[in-house]
Design brief:
Layout: E1 13-17, E2 21-25, E3 32-37, E4 49-54, E5 61-66, E6 70-78, E7 88-97, E8 103-108, E9 117-122, E10 126-131, E11 139-143, E12 150-155, E13 162-167, E14 173-177, E15 186-188, E16 195-200, E17 207-212, E18 216-221, E19 234-237, E20 243-248, E21 255-260, E22 263-268
Antiparallel strand pairs: 1-2, 2-3, 4-5, 5-6, 6-7, 8-9, 9-10, 10-11, 12-13, 13-14, 14-15, 16-17, 17-18, 18-19, 20-21, 21-22
Length: about 270
């Protein structure tokens, strides 16, 4: 994930996760590793990270989720380069046990100024919302009735009351309203195989794109919620494989990118 620096103030930083969170600086003549953020200095082993998100309001905050049931919020520090000295370092601002089992995804919300609220999903089948100002408790937004693990979540880009999540091996996407916890306001269920990706429109509060193993990318108009959303308004079929991931262009909302097998396709909406 690139740093979400719309004003171009920060260096061109790129974050990746796997065993650890790594920050890279892209530039000429090369791209180099700035720092490895490791919260467990006392062991040669680590709990792999499952996802991360970069705060769009405070670019010094990055949140990670891990199979060890925790979420970690990292504080980044950037400084002026001195020769080959690294520009970026980081420290743990807070680490919390977020779920009863593995945490699979984390995402910051734009609610309340966009800095302090974030949500996570995990193998316990729940969506939980946290506030960095009040970490002594969390709010359970949704629990899957069968406790099926929830793999991904995504916040509505224009209306922070809504978020979407998808369960493991599920053909439907669940739309939640944080003002009405525990009850989905919509279920998008036209996929014929499990859903892999969800992406809200960057410019509209009522459009979302979903993609799955049925080779399809579907765009939905959800403005008639809470009435049932029967069918998508647009559909695209990738002829050669399951769609694994999807991105909706933040600065160019007429374009959606999908990937399947060894291919990446750019679709015009």
């Amino acid at each position: 994930m690139w740093i979400p620096d719309s004003k171009g103030v920060y260096p061109d930083l790129l974050a990746t996760s796997g065993d650890y969170l790594r920050l890279w600086r892209a530039g000429e003549p090369d791209t180099r590793l700035e720092c490895v953020l490791n919260n467990n200095k006392n062991s040669d082993f680590c709990a792999p990270l499952t996802s991360f998100d970069w705060n769009e309001v405070d670019l010094n905050l990055v949140g990670t989720s891990s199979i060890d049931t925790t979420c970690t919020i990292w504080g980044l520090e950037t400084s002026q380069p001195l020769g080959r000295v690294n520009l970026v370092s980081g420290h743990v601002k807070t680490q919390l046990i977020a779920h009863d089992k593995e945490v699979y995804d984390i995402a910051f919300s734009r609610a309340g100024g966009g800095r302090d609220m974030f949500a996570s999903v995990g193998a316990d089948g729940s969506v939980r919302m946290f506030d960095l100002r009040h970490l002594e408790h969390s709010t359970i937004i949704y629990e899957d009735p069968a406790h099926t693990p929830l793999l991904r979540l995504a916040w509505n880009k224009q209306d922070p009351n809504y978020l979407a999540t998808v369960a493991m091996d599920s053909c439907e996407v669940i739309i939640l309203d944080v003002r009405v916890p525990c009850t989905p306001v919509a279920r998008l269920s036209n996929h014929r195989a499990c859903v892999n990706g969800i992406a809200w429109a960057p410019h509209s509060s009522c459009h979302i794109c979903t993609a799955g193993d049925d080779h399809q990318a579907l765009i939905w108009d959800i403005q008639q919620m809470p009435r049932p959303i029967e069918d998508p308004i647009l559909a695209y079929t990738a002829a050669e494989g399951e769609v694994n991931q999807i991105q909706w262009g933040a600065t160019q909302p007429d374009w959606i990118a999908i990937c399947y097998k060894t291919a990446c396709e750019i679709l015009r909406v």
